[in-house]
Amino acid sequence: MKRRVLIGAGSLLGAAVLLPTQAQTVVKVRMAYFEDFAPMSFKTPKGDMAGIFIETLNHIAKASGVAFQHSGFPWQRAQNYIKAGELDALCAWNSVERKEYLWFASTPVIEQTMGIYHRPKDARVQAIRSVQDMRALAQGSYLGNGYAKQYLEPDLIKWQADMTSVLRLVAAESLDIFVEGELIGKAAIEKHGLQGKLAFTPLPFLDPVRSYFGLRKSFDKAQHIVERVDGALGQARKSGALGIIYKKYV
């Protein structure tokens, strides 16, 4: 039997800002997020989705003519729902693999510096100048991390179910390093009480990670909708509205 994805009634936040005259042209897009990815996307105590991704898309809903529904899952499962056509879109790095089934906007929702999370007293990280230098250390990441699969050496990575597990294993000395964006890792460290146990070191040789809106190619008029979203994101960036949203979470 085909799985059904349940979306909470409170998830239609983007629709609230649509004007009556636009109603006939509004397109409903069901978003799938990583449910534990603060400050980008995370579940509130009530079970609703919140974060930079959600608030940004709600902000551009009227301008893009899209009513966004927001749901969160473990990251690999969220992407599988989109591949199966049960959900429609995500905000993520536009990896080669994702480009096979998604059309991406050209304007990023947000950009982050990439680096490694490690134990503060582990001096070995200071010698890392390339991806190959990481081979001497036990690396971890979470399932569904497209950046790690494309830019690192995935066969040498010990894959975990979620980011929290990776961070805890590094703190416990079961792993040595974890490559991730600066904002994401710091939020998880604070949430799970790992302050003082983990440190972040930027890696200039790694490209920044940019998160983009991506809509499945099988969606009706997908490219046209992506163009509308891209235009609205560009306008919001120029107006300073996106910067205001970021400051609320960083």
TrEMBL record:
Gene3D superfamilies: Periplasmic binding protein-like II. InterPro entries: Solute-binding_3/MltF_N. Residues 28-250 form the Solute-binding protein family 3/N-terminal domain. Pfam families: SBP_bac_3 (PF00497). The keyword Signal applies. Keywords: Signal. Residues 1-23 form the signal peptide. It comes from the Bacteria. This is Transporter substrate-binding domain-containing protein.
